[in-house]
Amino acid sequence: MSTAEMLVNRMVRKWEQERATGPPVMPAIEQQPVITLSREYGGGRGLLIARRAAELLGFTVWEANLVDRIASSAHVRRQLVESLDERNANQISELITTLFEDHGFHQSDYLHHLTRTLLAIGRLGLALIVGRGAQFVLDPRRTLRVRLFAPLEYRVQQIASERSLTEKEAREDVRRVDAERVAFCAAHFRKDVRDLASYDLVLDFSSLSPELCADLIVHAFRGRFG
Q: What's the total number of domains in the chain?
């Protein structure tokens, strides 16, 4: 069983337990409150912050590579969507149609499957999604959209130290990855991932510790959604 399949199985079991023992499930049309985290490239701090925040909230972290694997696997994607009731699954199809029409997303197979995956995760809830433009797909009324950034020079020094690169090599690496992330959202969602209007909370990880960043995310989420 792949990592993606194990994560989906674990998440579905957790969601079913919450549904069985917790308060009444929200109406099917509503997305559960979730967190999306977009970050500038600067070493492993983004994932460290995401994992700490998720641990404090009891959420599952959906990293970009796992989201991609689910989006590209018909079996795992179907398993995720079928964990929802029929009404919710049908609404995901309707939402995809609306998103593509209203926002002019490119109708590629990859984007269609990615969008379906993100919407399903949003309906399940208990999730912190890292990257992959999730902030542009999920309902902003039910999503805490977080952006992590730091000055270029700080990020260059971090990468140079962590990966034993020269300053020139680290600078090229940072600029390349930053450009790839900008290009991804521009190509698929026609959005600038750097536009701060797309976020509810923006944190500078060069001046705030990972622990403090995670605590601020948790505080903002609980303050907004209870």
A: 1
